[in-house]
Automatic annotation (TrEMBL):
GO function term, MF aspect, one: endopeptidase activity
Species classification: Bacteria, Bacillati, Actinomycetota, Actinomycetes, Micrococcales
Transmembrane segments: 20-39, 51-73, 85-106, 118-136, 148-167, 172-193
Source organism of this protein record: Arthrobacter terrae
The protein, known as: CPBP family intramembrane metalloprotease
PANTHER family in the record: CAAX AMINO TERMINAL PROTEASE, CAAX AMINO TERMINAL PROTEASE FAMILY PROTEIN
The CAAX prenyl protease 2/Lysostaphin resistance protein A-like domain, residue ranges: 87-184
GO terms of biological process kind: CAAX-box protein maturation
Keyword entries, A-Z: Hydrolase, Membrane, Metalloprotease, Protease, Transmembrane, Transmembrane helix
Length: 194
C-alpha cells in the first residue's frame, strides 16, 4: 500500500527538494519499519550462508560499474555555482534515503513479501515496477505517459538488476553499495574534479 501511496502523493503534492526526502523518509522507512516491528518474523528468508554471498556480488558490482558508469554517454554533474558543503549534504541524504531506505523498502521488505506470496519472478517484477513508479516525483517532467515510460525503462531496469541481486544473494549491503554508487557516481566525480 505504501509503495502505491508514495507515487500518488508525489503526483498530487509536489514533493520537491527537502519535502521529497522527508516524504521518502516517512512513507518508505519510518512507517514500514514501525509496521514491520508489529509483524516481526512474518516472512522468513532462507539463503545459503556462504562466502559466495560476498565475493559473487562484489564481482557483479565491479563489472556493472565498469560497464554502466564509465560509459562515455553518461551525463556529468556540474557543481559550478553550488556550495560544495550543500552538495555533500545532499549526497549523504540521498545515500541514506535512496541507497539504504529504498533498498530496505523495495528489496528487503516489499520484494521479499511479494516473493513469498507470488513467487520469485513476480516479486522481482512487481517490486521493480513499484520502485520505478516511485521515481515519478523526482524524475517527472509533467508529461505523465512519457514520464511513466521513462521511469519504467530507466529506474525499472535498475530495479530489476537490484531485485535479481537481492533474490540471488540476499545481501542487502551489496544492494546498498550498488545503489549508492549509481546515485553518487556523477556527484563524486564532480567533487573530485573541482
Amino acid at each position: 500500500m505504501l509503495a502505491a501511496l508514495f507515487p500518488l502523493i508525489s503526483a498530487t503534492i509536489p514533493l520537491q527538494g527537502e519535502l521529497y526526502v522527508l516524504g521518502k523518509l516517512v512513507l518508505l522507512i519510518i512507517i514500514p519499519c514501525g509496521l514491520l516491528l508489529l509483524v516481526r518474523r512474518s516472512v522468513k528468508i532462507d539463503f545459503r550462508k556462504s562466502a559466495a554471498r560476498w565475493w559473487a556480488p562484489a564481482i557483479v558490482i565491479v563489472l556493472w560499474v565498469i560497464v554502466s558508469q564509465v560509459a562515455p554517454w553518461n551525463s556529468t554533474f556540474d557543481i559550478g555555482g553550488l556550495d560544495p558543503a550543500l552538495v555533500v549534504t545532499a549526497a549523504v541524504a540521498t545515500a541514506l534515503t535512496a541507497g539504504v531506505g529504498e533498498e530496505l523498502f523495495y528489496r528487503r521488505w516489499l520484494q521479499t513479501r511479494l516473493e513469498a506470496g507470488l513467487g520469485a519472478w513476480s516479486g522481482i517484477v512487481i517490486g521493480s515496477l513499484a520502485f520505478a513508479l516511485m521515481h515519478l516525483g523526482s524524475h517527472g517532467t509533467g508529461e505523465f505517459f512519457l514520464d511513466v515510460a521513462r521511469v519504467i525503462v530507466v529506474q525499472g531496469s535498475f530495479g530489476l538488476f537490484l531485485g535479481i541481486m537481492w533474490w540471488r544473494y540476499r545481501n542487502l549491503f551489496a544492494n546498498v553499495v550498488v545503489h549508492v554508487i549509481v546515485n553518487g557516481w556523477a556527484v563524486a566525480a564532480a567533487l573530485l574534479a573541482a
